[in-house]
Amino acid sequence: MSEIYSLIRRLGATSKYKGYYYVAEAVKMAEALQERPMKITKDIYPILARKYKSTPSNVEHNIRTLINLCWMSHRETLEEIAGCTMEDKPTNSEFIDILAYYLYSSHEKTARQ
């Protein structure tokens, strides 16, 4: 989990944002769901809401707030992690997928060496 937190911090977010924890957990869940399409509103928001005693709507909002912060303050780093330039701010599911894929591909590169 520390690797996920480190990646989120590279994007300018800190633990003062609730979305920091939600994104970290969501990325961890997305990594586990690599074999099938991730349905963020059905697979992730309800589980996080239960875990953190919140609502799916609040989870979604807090993740969006964190993405806005990362987009505004560290867009270049986010594009570097995504591996492409982005015209628009990523959606919640795109952001989580970008981070999960980045970590997954990093592990694959390490395993091949």
UniProtKB/TrEMBL annotation:
GO terms for molecular function: calcium ion binding; DNA binding; DNA-binding transcription factor activity; translation initiation factor activity. Keywords: Initiation factor, Protein biosynthesis. SUPFAM superfamilies: C-terminal effector domain of the bipartite response regulators. The keyword Protein biosynthesis applies. It holds the Pfam family Spo0A_C. The keyword Protein biosynthesis applies. GO terms for biological process: regulation of sporulation resulting in formation of a cellular spore. It comes from the Bacteria. GO terms for cellular component: cytoplasm. Residues 4-102 form the Sporulation initiation factor Spo0A C-terminal domain. This is Sporulation initiation factor Spo0A. It comes from Blautia luti DSM 14534 = JCM 17040.
